[in-house]
Amino acid sequence: MEFQDVVRRRRMVRRYADRPVDAAIVDRALENATHAPSAGFSQGWAFLRLDTPEDVRRFWAASSDDIEHPSAWLAGLMTAPVVIVPCSSKAAYLERYAQPDKGWTDRAEPRWSMPYWHMDAAMASLLILQTATDAGLGACFFGTVRGREQQLREAFDIPEDYDPVGVITIGHRQPDTGSAGSPARRPRTPWTEVVHRGRWGH
Q: Rounded distance, CA 57 to CA 105, Å?
């Protein structure tokens, strides 16, 4: 698929067919994720890969408030055969920038203007979404449920120095029978309205 087609066709898919995903595609998506840019080449990301029915069920049980009576949105997502949890490590970035070639001598977080550990993991996540689209699959990125992080950590032994930044589901796309996504209710803002050339407002 041409790159512009990947960009235009990528959508958040919320319901999947009962078919397995080729493991080689998941491998490719995760390998591509590690080609995302990272500040100082810190590469402070990690990816929890869940691609067996048992692990996927454990994920939903640990991360969701009510899987026995899920909303239409959650019920659709739960049909995904593959779940990936991208994580970021702030410690990896603080450590990297305390090294001699970066010039900082401490690991003080206030030096950072933005939490690049999260931003870099998000860019890696987009490469996973794009790889899925390129392979003809559907994928969705969404946030973890507030208050369920500890259960998720304990269920899958996620280290304390890695923080889940979201969740990605991957599978063969099915029509969404639940609530429509936001793009169905809101038009895409033309790029000419969000680009300000030379100064804001121009």
A: 45
Measured in degrees and rounded to the nearest 5, phi and psi for residue 86 equal -75, 135
Q: Phi/psi of residue 33, each to 5°? A: -60, -35
**SS3 sequence of 95-142:** HHCCCCCCCCCCCCHHHCCCCHHHHHHHHHHHHHHHHHHHCCCEEEEE
Q: How many angstroms separate the CA atoms of 202 and 193, rounded?
A: 9
The C-alpha atoms of residue 133 and residue 3 are separated, in whole angstroms, by 10
Q: What residues contact residue 157 under an 8 Å CB cut-off, 6+ apart? A: none
How many angstroms separate the CA atoms of 14 and 11, rounded? 9
Identify whether the C-beta of residue 60 lies closer than 8 Å to the C-beta of residue 138.
no
SS (H, E, C) 25-48: HHHHHHHHHCCCCCHHHCCCEEEE
Distances (CA, A) of 8 to 5, 60, 111: 5, 30, 37
Residue 84: pLDDT above 80? yes
Q: What is the pLDDT of residues 140-177, one digit of tens each?
A: 999 999 999 999 999 999 999 999 999 999 999 998 76
CA Rg value for the chain = 19
Q: Give the mean pLDDT of 57-79.
A: 92
What's the pTM value of the predicted model, to 2 decimals? 0.91
Query: How far apart are alpha carbons 17 and 140 in whole angstroms?
Result: 14
Task: Tell me the pLDDT of the chain averaged across its residues.
Answer: 93
